[in-house]
Amino acid sequence: DADGLLWMYSGTISSFDGEAWTTLEDEYAELGGIGTAVTDGRWTLGIDGSHWVVRRAGEGVQVVRIAGGEVTTTTFGGIGVGPDTAALAGDAAGRLWLAIESAGVFSVDVDTGAVIEYGLADGLPTLELLDIAAHPDGTIWVATAAGVTRIVPET
Q: Above 90 in pLDDT, residue 125?
């Protein structure tokens, strides 16, 4: 990341500064922690340095964002997450992007509650989604079984 830390996720979110490992859960324990969201979810480090964890929550997903010393938790209905979740990416605008196999790509804004779905009608060549990445210029790149697709979200 921008501070030179190496981040890893294996049931817990940890950073390595070249000498020692630190877990994010310990660092944010005084903020109420992120509990089971870490142990049964998926994690990514956003371009802006935000940590994102996504896990199942009933018929939707719970999104946890850790940024600027604050933990924000929001639940969104109608988005499935689990073994079919190919990848996550956090963009420079503070949105989380989810690539979900057989469903599509979802942009989630935890500040406004907005969810935008991108599917075959929006230009994805297939719903066999492999990976997703956010570029600092706002472009979202989606790796699919049929090639790479670019999404340029409205700002």
A: yes
Q: Rounded to whole angstroms, how far apart are CA atoms 129 and 85?
A: 9
CA distances to 9, 88, 128, 129 from 119, rounded to whole Å, are 28, 16, 11, 11
Q: Say how far residue 7 (Cα) sits from the centre of its chain.
A: 14
pTM exceeding the 0.85 threshold for the entire prediction: no
CA–CA separation, 98 vs 44, rounded Å?
A: 10
What tokens does 147 get? 């090639």
Q: Which two tokens stand for residue 57?
A: 């929550």
Distance (Å, whole) CA 3 – CA 148: 30
Q: What is the pLDDT of residues 62-101, one digit of tens each?
A: 788 888 777 788 887 777 655 566 688 989 888 899 888 8
Residue among 16, 7, 22 at smallest CA distance from 52: 7
Query: Where does residue 13 fall: left (phi above 0), alpha (psi -120 to 50 degrees), or beta otherwise?
Result: beta
For residue 37, give both structure tokens. 């969201």
CA–CA gap between residue 30 and residue 27 (Å, rounded): 8
